[in-house]
Fold this protein.
Amino acid sequence: MKNNYLKVKRDLINLQKGKTLLTAIASFLMFIFTGLSSFAQCTPSTTGPWDYIATFNTTGGITNIAHTSTAMATAGYGDFTNVYSVSQLAGSSISFTETYSGNGGHGFNIWVDWNNNQEFETGEKVYASVTMYDTGANGPLQGSFTVPSSAAVGNYKMRVRAQQGTADPSPCGVIDWGEAKDYTITVLSQAEPCTPSTTGPWDYIATFNTTGGITNIAHTSTAMATSGYGNFTNVYSVSQLAGSSISFTETYSGNGGHGFNIWVDWNNNQEFENSEKVYASVTMYDTGANGPLQGSFTIPASAIAGNYRMRVRAQQGTADPSPCGVIDWGEAKDYTISVLQEPEPCTPSTTGPWDYIATFNTTGGISNIAHTSTAMATSGYGDFTDEYSLSQVAGGSISFTETYSGNGGHGFNIWVDWNNNQEFENSEKVYASVTMYDTGANGPLQGAFSIPATVAVGSYRMRVRAQQGTADPLPCGTIAWGEAKDYTITVTAPMGLNPVNGLKDRVIVYAENDYIVAESSHAMIHAISVYDISGRLVYNQKDINKPRISVNDLTAMHQVLLLQIVTDSGTVTKKIVH
C-alpha cells in the first residue's frame, strides 16, 4: 500500500505539472482497489474434484465442532464460519480428529487469525501434521492446540486445510487434491465460580471416594479446608465415558444428620445451576451411625468430551445444601470430572469385491460362533459384535475352522482387544496362520488359541481377517482381496469361584414372577451372565451400572441356572432354580 500511495502522490504532482487528469484518476482508483484487496482474505481452491475432509470434530472446548461431509465443497473451499464454531477459554486446549476421503498420505494444518488482519501468518499456525498421514490405513488423524493465554475475548476465523502428497499445506493458493474449510473459534472470558464458606471450624467431609470411573478420586481429609471450601480441581479428578455411571462413598466428620449434594458445571459457565445437580441425598444421613453415605450418578449421554468442575457439599442440619453461600457447619470441595470420548476401532476395507470369509466356526467354548456367509460384507468389513459371540473361562482354549471363498493361498489372523482400547496391537494377536493356506485345495483352515489366565472377566472385541496373497494380514488398512469380521468374545470366571470380603452375602438373587432379579446392597452391578447347568451361555448383559437388574427374556425355564455377576467389588456366582 505504501508504494501505491507514493504512486498516487507522484501522479498528483504530475497533474500539477500539466499531466493528464485521467492518469491521476486512474492511479487513485488503483490505489483504492489494491488497498482494499489487501484486506480481503485469500480464497484457496482445488482443481481435482474428489478428495476432501470427510470429518472434522473437536473435543475439549466449551462448545465444539462436529462436521461431517460427503463431498468436496465448491472448488475445494468451504466457508462455515456462520455454521460451525468451537469455543474455549484463553490458555486452554482444544483436541480434534480429522478424516480424509482420499487415498494415501496427506498433510493437515490449522491456522487461527489471532490478530484479525484477514491473513493466516506463519506465527498463527496452531497445528501442523509435520509428516503425511493416511487416515484410510491408520484411522482419523488426532491432534490438539492451545488457545494463547494472551488471546482477547472474541471471535476469530480458523482455517483447516488438507492436501494430498504434501506434509505442509499452505492456507492460500491452488492445489490439485485436497480441501480447505473455515470455522469460527470463540475465546470466552475466564469467569470464576462462587466461593462457598463455613463459619464453624470443625465439621468437614472426611472421605470422598469414587468407583466405577475409568479413573477415580480417593480423597481423605483430617481437617476442614480453609473457611470450609477446598479447590482440588488440579489435584483430584474422576473420568468416565458419556452415558456411564460413577459411584461414590462419603463420610462426614460431624455428629448427627447432614445433607449431601453434588453438582457438575456441564455448560462450563462457572455456575452450579439446579439442573446441574447430579446427586441429592434428599434426606439427612448420619455417617457416624450408619457408615459412609453411598450413591451414584450418570454422565449424560449428550455430554461433550472435556473437563468439567464438580462440586460436592455437605451441610449439617439440612437435607439440601446449596452450592454457594455461607453456612454454619459443613464443607464444600471442588474436583475435576473428565468426560471421555468413546474410542472407535479402525475400519478395515477391501477394494476387490469378490473374496470373503465363507465360514468361521468355533468349538470348545462355553458358547460358540457358527457364521456362514455367501457374499463379502460391505467394503470388506463386517461388524458382527452384536450378532455372533463366543464365551470361555480365563485360561481356557477355543478351536476354530475357517473357509475362504477366493482361489489360491491366503493368510488368516485373529486379534482380541484385551485392554479394550479399541486398538488391535501386535501383542493381542492370538492366532497367525504364519504361511498362506488354500482352503479350496486343502479344506477348511483349522486352528486354536488360548484365553490368557490373567484376563479379567468381561466382553472383548475379536477381529478375524483373511487376505489373499499374504501370510500376515494386518487388522487395519485397505487391501485388494480379502475380508475382516469382528465378533464378541466373553471371558467368564471358572464356575464355583468363591468371592472375597463377604461379597457373596451382599449380592442376592431371587425369582419375581417370570423375572430373575439380582441386587447388590453395596455396589453397582456392571455385568451379568446366565448359564445353564451344562455351562451354555443363555443370557449376557453388560454396561448395566445399577444396583439392581431384572432378567426376563430367558429361553431356559424350569432348570438350575448359574448367574455370574460383576460388581465394583468383584465377581460372584449365584445359583437359582428358574
